[in-house]
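pasting for ref
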Amino acid sequence: MFRFHKALDVITLFHKPSLPASTRVLNILKQVSAHASEGATEDQASDHSHQNKIQRSEFELNVTEEPPTSDQLRTILEYVGARRAKDLIDGARDEGEAMRLLKEDSKSFRRPVIVDWNNGRAVIGDSESEILKMVGELPKGETV
């Protein structure tokens, strides 16, 4: 019988390398991803009970320096709430204004922003606890 593994969740980091906060977020995500991969490839016969308590799901990390598309921005605003438009786009007070300002000047988009597209969540900024919570809540890999 064949077993198919669930596709990995995709987490996107909207990144700006010149920002220390964005670089810090990238390092956090890389570390978490590496630890999740380590646990997923270990020999099943070994005792990993101490690791099971901190086990995280594997995910695909997508890092982009481009701003989001209009559709992506709309989706991110759905995840975080339209009231957070000002946190995503400089000078925006609502979703409509955020969309307009992004079209006028893509540099108005604030980074870092981390988006879990598969599970409908996003983190604005570099809060390590929020990022770890989002990654920790990823569904565990299952076979179908």
